[in-house]
Input
Amino acid sequence: MHTVQLFFRARNARNHEEVLDKVWSYLAALLHNGQIVGDHIPIAKVRAGYLVTASLPEPAALADRFANAWVRKRLRDLKSVGVARPKVTRLGTDPDGASPCTCTRRPFLLLFTTFMTVSSPVRCGRCFRPIALYRMPVTYEEGKNHQDMLQWQDTYKAIDWLFIGSGAGEKWAHDQLSRVDSALSVDGRELARELEKKARVPVYYYLNKYFGRSDRAERKRKCPSCGRAWLREEPLHLIFDFQCRRCRLLSNVAFDVR
Output
């Protein structure tokens, strides 16, 4: 990922509330289109405007060719209150950020995220690197953006945080992450199916399992959807011990018994 600063020049001090509203609307449009990523977007009032620090999934993420209708509209809204296209200053590569997928052919895709993930929840099946959402077909038809995918990711991360916290919600959170019939998994699998129809490649959903009885018992597990054998000979990307091509599911031998 790449860290940048966006400077929104606002000369008119009398309409600062309206300008700030348009700036936030533009940033929201970029976020829902996948052109910026992250849970927190710092903004500062500076001389002659506003300064925003943001993370990009790719160096060229803000290029016009990736903008959708909402991003273009929000740019026009900025202009209507006297604010031009923001000036972009590139600060450098995020040392903790994931490098984007550069594969020319992707045999399949995965929905994958964790409580620490900032990047796109869509991963390449070949290299396991994140794919910027603006490079993916839109699944949220109502908004013509990726808001549904981002909402699922936010929910997953919140539940993963709850599980990692090992408090009162640990068992419930683990069930949400590991069970195929949980509300989280049902929503995620529906997104995966919709993306598969649009992208025309298989899209897998990951069932993250931590608790198990024993390594031996774990390896005897069958696919929880169709009941067939799904243990791989070798783990995929060193994580996924199980793969059901029929049900588009991935999982792992429970981490506490490996």
